Amino acid sequence: MGKCPVLMILLSFSLLLVFETLNGVDAVQCFGSPYKRNSSYARNRRKLFSNLAEKVVDNSGFYNASFGQFPDRVYGLAMCARGYEQEACFNCVQRLANSTIDDCQSRKDSFMWGEDTDAAVSCLVRSSNHSTFRSLKLSPPFVQPSPNTIQASTLTLFLPQWEAMVNRTIEAATKAKNSSVLKYYRAEKAGFADFPDVYMLMQCTPDISSKDCNTCLRDCVIYYRKQYLGREGGMASFPSCLFRWDKYAFHGAFDDVKRVPAPPPGPHVNEEESSTTNKKGRSIGYRGIIAIIAVLTFINILVFIGFIKVYARRRKQKNVGSAEYSDSDGQFMLRFDLGMIERATDDFSSENTLGQGGFGTVYKGTFPNGKEVAVKRLTKGSGQGDTEFKNEVSLLTRLQHRNLVKLLGFCNEGGEEILVYEFVPNASLDNFIFDEEKRSLLTWEVRFKIIEGIARGLLYLHEDSQLKIVHRDLKLSNILLDAEMNPKIADFGTARLFDTDETRAETKRIAGTRGYMAPEYLNHGEISAKSDVYSFGVMLLEIISGEKNKSYEGEGLAAFTWKRWVEGKPEIIIDHILKEHPRNEIIKLIKIGLLCVQENAAKRPTMSSVIMWLGSEKILIPLPDAPANSGSRSQSESGTTTVSMSGDVFTELACR
C-alpha cells in the first residue's frame, strides 16, 4: 500500500511544478528582447492595439498589421475562433490586448489565447518586433491543466478513446476545406465509456500552411500528453495554435456540434481484465500504473536505439555521401555524392522540377533526414566550364547573408556539375506581386519587410561582404521568399566580381534583363554598384504599384511614376490593395525609388543611404531628378540575356 502513493507522487511531480487551473485568469506569455516601459516601442504597441479589436471584427475575424519605424516597429496579429459573434470577438480581443499592454511591459514578444467572459468565443493576440505573418511559431508553450485527475482504474480504457478523438480532430481541423479566413478550426463532442461527454477544440492561425498547422497541433498534444497525462481536461498552446479538451462545454461553438460515440477501446483491456477490475479496483490501479511505466520505458528504449541508428547513418553519409572540400583560398564547402543527390531527386524526376534556368534545371530534393533542398543540375555544354563552376562554388560559399539564397554544397563527378542550395518554399516574388489573388497577402507591412530585406542583401554584396559583387540581373523573379516571407536574392548567373578598390568596369557584351538595366550599362556597357541600385529602384516601384515594368510600353514604370510625381499625384501608382495603409510612408518609398532610377548614375544613392532612409523618419531625403527615358529599346522586357565574358565571375542560382 505504501509504494503506490510514492509512485504516484513521483509521476505527478512535474505536474505540480507548473499547475494552474483552467478557471483562472488567462496568462500572457511575455518573451523576446527587453525594452523600457515608456520607450517608442511601448508607445507604438499601445497605438497599434488601440483599434485592434475593431480591425479584427472588420476583417472577418483575422487581422495582421504593424505600426512605427525600424527598430521600434511593432507587429501585431489577432484573431477570433470561427463562428464568432462580433460583440464577443471584440470584447475578447480588447481584453487580451489590454492584458498584453499591462502585463508585458518589459518584453517585445507576446502571445495570449483566451476567451470572453461568457465563453462564447476564443481569441488570440500576438505582438513582436518582427513580422509574425506566415510564420510557424512553436515556442514558448503555455499549458493549463485541469486540477482533477482521472482515476487509474479508468485510464487504460480512456486513453485509446482520447487518442482516437485527438487524431480525428486534428485531421478535421487541418483539412481546411472551408474558404473562410478562419479555416483551421474544429470543435468535437464525443461520449466515452467512463465519461458521458468529452469536448475538444483545435485551432491554428490562418496564415500558416495546412502542414504547419498539423505540426503545431500535434506538438501541442505531445507537450500536453507528456506532462499532464491523466488530468480531466486542459489546454496547450503555442503562438500559432491552440488545443483544449474538457468534460464540459467550455466554448459556445459546441452548441451546434453533434455528439458522436467514442471509438471502441483498443486491445489494452480485454473482458477478463474488465471483470477483474469490477471485483478488485485496487488491482487495476496497480496495473494501470505499471502499464504506463512499462510503455514509457519501452518508448525510451526505442528512442535510444533510434538515436544510435540515426547517428550511424549520418556518420556513414558524411564518410561516403559527402565530404568537405577546401579551395585554394581555404574556403570549406560540402561535396555531395552523386548517388545521394540522385536518390534525393528521384533520379532527377520531372515531377521534382522546380524551374528551368539559363544554364540548367532546378529540382527539389529531399535527403534521408528529411531536409529539403534545391538542386541545380548544370546543362552540359551550357558555357560554364570547370573554371567558372569552381568560381561559382567559391563565390557563393563566401557569401553568407540571411537575404541571399544559401549554397549548401556541390557535386562534380560522373561528368555532372551540380549545385545544392537551400530550399525556399514560397518561390519568387513575381508569383505573388503580379497575381491578383496572392497579392492580397502582401500587406504594406509585408512589402516593406521585403523591400528592406532586398536592400540589406544588396548592401552586403556591395559593401559588407569580404567580396564586392554587382549582381547585374536584379528583378522580382530573382527574389525568392522563404516560409516567413523574408526575401532572398538569387540567380547570380551574371554576377560581376570587383576588386576591393575597383568602382566601375566596362564590357562590350551585355548580360541581364531589359527593363531593369541601368541606361549607362545597357547603352555603354558601364558596370558599377549603381547599376544594381537602378534595378532596385525599378523593383521597388513594381512592389508598390503591383504592376509590371513592361506594362508601361514606350516609357516604363519609372518614367510614368516621374510624370505623376511632377504632377503632384504620386499616389496614382499605389496598388489599390494598399488603400488602407499609411499613404505618407508609401509616398516616401516612391521618392526613394525615383532617386534610385535617376539617369545620372552619380546622383543615385548607395544602398547604405537607402537603408538609412528606410529606417528613419527624421532624415531629410533629397528630391529626385528625372529618370532615363530610353524608349522601347531599353524598357521593353524581352527576357534575360546571359553571356560568358572574359573577366566576369558567373554564378547562376535559379531555385524557382
Helix content: 25-40%
**Spatial order of strands in the largest sheet:** 12-13-17-18-16-15-14
CATH topology of the largest domain: Transferase(Phosphotransferase), domain 1
Indicate the CATH class of the largest domain: Mainly Alpha
SS strand fraction = 15-25%
Number of domains: 5
For the record, the CATH architecture of the largest domain stands as Orthogonal Bundle
Structure summary, number of beta strands: 26
Structural class: alpha+beta
GO biological process, one term: response to abscisic acid
Main location: membrane
Binding site for ATP: 376
Pfam families: PK_Tyr_Ser-Thr, Stress-antifung
Care to give the gist of this entry?
The chain crosses the membrane at residues 284-308. The chain is of the alpha+beta class and 656 residues long.
Describe how the helices and strands are arranged.
Blueprint: H1 3-17, E1 29-34, H2 40-49, H3 52-58, E2 62-67, E3 74-80, H4 86-103, E4 107-115, E5 122-128, E6 142-145, H5 152-175, E7 185-191, E8 198-204, H6 210-228, E9 234-238, E10 241-246, E11 259-261, H7 271-279, H8 281-321, E12 322-326, E13 332-336, H9 338-344, E14 353-356, E15 360-366, E16 372-378, H10 386-398, E17 407-411, E18 418-422, H11 430-433, H12 444-464, E19 468-470, E20 479-481, E21 487-489, E22 496-498, E23 504-506, E24 512-513, H13 519-524, E25 526-528, H14 529-545, H15 556-566, H16 583-596, H17 607-614, H18 631-635, E26 640-641
Parallel strand pairs: 7-11, 13-17
Antiparallel strand pairs: 1-4, 2-3, 3-5, 4-5, 6-9, 7-8, 8-10, 9-10, 12-13, 14-15, 15-16, 16-18, 17-18, 19-22, 20-21, 23-25, 24-26
Helix pairs in contact: 2-4, 3-4, 5-6, 5-8, 7-8, 12-14, 12-17, 14-16, 15-16
